[in-house]
Amino acid sequence: MDFFDTLGETVASAGKVISHKTKEVAGSTKLSLQISQEEAKVKKAYAALGEAFYGDHAEDMPEQYAIYAVDVKECLDRLNALKKDKQILKNQKRCVKCGALMPNEDKFCGKCGAENEILVKDEEPEEKEEETAEEEGETRVCPSCQAKVSAELIYCPECGEKLQP
After folding, report:
1. Predicted confidence (pLDDT) per residue in 112-127, tens digit
2. What is the value of pTM for the model shown?
3. Domain DZANK-type, which positions (predicted)?
4. Which of 41, 61, 139, 143 could form a disulfide with 69 if both were Cys (CB 3.0 to 4.6 A apart)?
5. How far apart (Å, rounded) are the C-alpha atoms in residues 116 and 107?
6. Domain count for the chain
């Protein structure tokens, strides 16, 4: 019987050690998760602070932060250039005034009438099959330049003239 009593005590003791270690690991894991979450919050707050500071001081950046401001400006410029390239590939651009999407070849925004730069792809085929407004749905004719335009537009994309409703 002595053997079984000793075996039982050994198993019970090992169980207590395992239970204690499991609680330690679980507690450590829980704390590690909380630490990671707080570090993520701090990182997000730093980013928001930096963005706000850059927005407020982009033109009068203190000298000790100028190197960071230059990096941000260069990244923003590259980002804007990439977005513009993507829009050109999709044959679209955003109106400089209202932000509406419009075809690259339109000189005037069909929504607000603002004049816009015509964007051209670098490697455009010489002969391009033109899409007409008729292929896109209902059309009407601009009274000023006689261009066929989509019925939903308020301004002519060719001449900028306000269209009759």
Report:
1. 999 998 876 555 444 4
2. 0.47
3. 95-160
4. 61
5. 5
6. 2
